[in-house]
Amino acid sequence: MQGAGTHEIQNIIITVFEVFALVVSLLMIAVGLIQNKKSQTGLSALNGGNDELFSNSKERGLDKTMSIWMFSLGISLFVITIIICILTNTILK
Description:
By secondary structure, the chain is an all-alpha fold. It has three helices and no strands.
C-alpha cells in the first residue's frame, strides 16, 4: 500500500523524465535544422531522386558533428521513452 506522499514523488519522477524527453526532442529539431541542406533526404530515396544513396561520401567537419549529435540524441530519446514506459507501468499498477 502506497501513501499519498509516495504517489506524489513517483508522479514527479515521471514528470521529470517527460521534461527530459521534451528537451531532447527539441534539441533534435534544432540539430536537424542546423544540418546541411545539400544532402539528399530519405524522402528523396522513396521518390527515386536520391542518386547518391549508396555512394561512399564521407562526412567531414560540421556535418559529421551534427550527425553524431543527432544519433546520440535519438538514442537518448529512445532510452528515456523506454524508462518512462517502464516507470508508468510499474507505478500505475
